[in-house]
Every structure is written in structure tokens, then in C-alpha cells.
């Protein structure tokens, strides 16, 4: 009987511990911060660590305990489901499922990216190599036109200027685009708007990451590569021609139930490098 009692007691203790762990958001303590980051090769991660000081002397110092997410959508889902979580996403992908904190007192908005007051922003670039098909040329012309830049603006990004009204040369064919999961949502909208004008072209947008997009463009696996960061000199040296299609902010996001609504750049750096591990330290 004593053995049975001890076994029951042990099960009860383990169950209570599990419940406590779950109640704390699965991060080992009610005050503990759950850091959510992107995978290596992500343009958003590359830009984020550089702009926030998480990268030191070209070395990414993201805390080793960070949970790694493979896309913007996964980051948002993870933060939505964990009250202790903090992550970062493209401003153009921000919705009400998560809360964007102010950075140094400045809200993460397209207007603040445009006026230069929001400190975490980066370019959305496309890259091509060699001779392009008429269809690819026409689609790029659409992106840069008044109509294309209106799509960019409607998606919450910041236009860098347009070339005027779009007139299609009415080519036919298929355009394959690959790369950044942050650029993908706005590119899908651009493709949809373009194909409504010219049904003779099919634009296929394939989501991966910025580095894969650049490699695919270099190797001729796609017509256009997407990057949510500056294109590296080593990539340009392999024949890539780069066009910035817009600017985008990187929103630092927390769960909607989190009471924190403002963080300094230094606090963000400390959180993502593991120097600060509890929410009470930044409240």
C-alpha cells in the first residue's frame, strides 16, 4: 500500500509540475521571456540582428535557447499562443493577432518608417540575372509603376517612388519568383494585380528565404529572387542585378496579453542575446 501511495503521490507531483509549466507559457517560469527568432538565411533575421546590435563583428549573438521559426506566419502563430513570447516580423504582415511594441517610444507604422523615426527598417529587394523573358520584364515594370506601388502601399510597406502609369506590352508566359517569406505577401498581391491586367502571364510566387531566393536567381532556378535585406556583395559578384521595390519595418511583437508596450533598442538587444531573461526587468 505504501508503494502504491508513493506512486500516486509522485504522479500527482509530476502532474502539478507539468500544469505549472504550461501555465507559465511553457518557458519555465511566469516571468521568463520566450525568445522567438527566425532561421539562418532569413533576410528578416539578418536585418533584425544587424539593426538591433544582436550581431557583433558579423557574428549573430541570438541566444541559443531561442525557438527558431521558419517563416513570418510561424512566428506570429507562436507569439499568439504563448503569453511569454517575443518575436519579430515584417511590418507589412502585422495584424491584430499579436501586438507590436513601440521601439524607443516610436510606433511601428509605415508612416514612421517613411519619416525615418522608426529605427528598425530594411529594404525589400528583387534580384535578376542575365537576360529576362518579356513576361518577367513586364511584371517588373508593373511593380515599379504607379499601380504596382499602390499595391505595395496598400500592404503596409513604404514606396520608394514609381515610374508612372503602367502600360503592358502584353507578353505571354510564366514568371517564377522565389525567396523571402517577408516579401512573399506583398509579392503575391502584386502578382494578383498584374495577372488581372495581363491574363497571358502566370506569375508563380514560391516562399523560402532571402538566401535561397538569391541562390535560385544566380543558378537560374527562378526568374526573380526576393530578399528582405540588402543583397550581399558576394551575391552581386555572381551577376545579380538588384532593384529595391519598397521599404519595410520590422515589428517587434509580443502576445496581446503582455502589458509591455515599449522597449528600447538596448532592451531588445539584451532580450535577444539572453542578457535579460525576465519580463519584470523591462516593465
UniProtKB/TrEMBL annotation:
<keyword id="KW-0592">Phosphate transport</keyword>
<feature type="signal peptide">
    <location>
        <begin position="1"/>
        <end position="22"/>
    </location>
</feature>
<protein>
    <submittedName>
        <fullName>Substrate-binding domain-containing protein</fullName>
    </submittedName>
</protein>
<keyword id="KW-0449">Lipoprotein</keyword>
<dbReference type="InterPro" id="IPR024370">
    <property type="entry name" value="PBP_domain"/>
</dbReference>
<feature type="domain" description="PBP">
    <location>
        <begin position="30"/>
        <end position="147"/>
    </location>
</feature>
<comment type="similarity">
    <text>Belongs to the PstS family.</text>
</comment>
<feature type="domain" description="PBP">
    <location>
        <begin position="168"/>
        <end position="281"/>
    </location>
</feature>
<keyword id="KW-0813">Transport</keyword>
<keyword id="KW-0732">Signal</keyword>
<comment type="function">
    <text>Part of the ABC transporter complex PstSACB involved in phosphate import.</text>
</comment>
<dbReference type="Pfam" id="PF12849">
    <property type="entry name" value="PBP_like_2"/>
</dbReference>
<dbReference type="InterPro" id="IPR050811">
    <property type="entry name" value="Phosphate_ABC_transporter"/>
</dbReference>
<keyword id="KW-0564">Palmitate</keyword>
<comment type="subunit">
    <text>The complex is composed of two ATP-binding proteins (PstB), two transmembrane proteins (PstC and PstA) and a solute-binding protein (PstS).</text>
</comment>
